[in-house]
Amino acid sequence: MAGNTISQINLSELLQKNFGFNMFKGEQEKIIESILSGRDTFVLMPTGGGKSLCYQLPGIISEGTAVIVSPLIALMKNQVDLVRNYNENENVAHFYNSTLNVGQKKAVEQDVKDGRTKLLYIAPETLAKPDNIEFLKSFKISFVAIDEAHCISEWGHDFRPEYRKIKDAIKKIPYHVPIMALTATATPKVQLDIVKNLSLKNHNLFVSSFNRANLYYEIRYKINDDWAVKNIIQFIKTQEGKTGIIYVLNRKSAEKIAETLCLNGIKAAPYHAGLEAKLRANTQDQFLNEDIHVIVATVAFGMGIDKPDIRFVIHYNIAKSLENYYQETGRAGRDGLEGNCIAYFNYKDITKVEKMLSDKTVTERERGMLLIDETVAYIESGECRRKFLLNYFGEEYDSKTCSEGKMCDNCAKPKEKVNVTEDISLSLNIINSCIEAHYLPHIMNIALGIKSDGVASYKHDLMPFFGQGKDKNEHYWTSVLRTTVIHGLVYREVEEYGTLKLTDKGRAYLKEPFKIEISLNHDYESEGDIVLAGNNNSSMDKELYNILLDIRKIEAKKANKPPYVLIQAPSLEEMCLKYPISEEEFSHITGVTKAMAAKYASAFCPVIKDYVEENDIIRPDDVMVKTIVNKSNDKVKIIGAIDKKISLETISKELGLKFSDLVDELESIVLNGTKLNIRYYLKEILDDEVIDEMMEFFQKNETGDIKECYENFIDDDLPEDDIRLVKLQFIGENLM
Ligand SMILES: [Zn+2]
Question: Would residue 453 count as lying in a domain?
Answer without folding.
Answer: yes
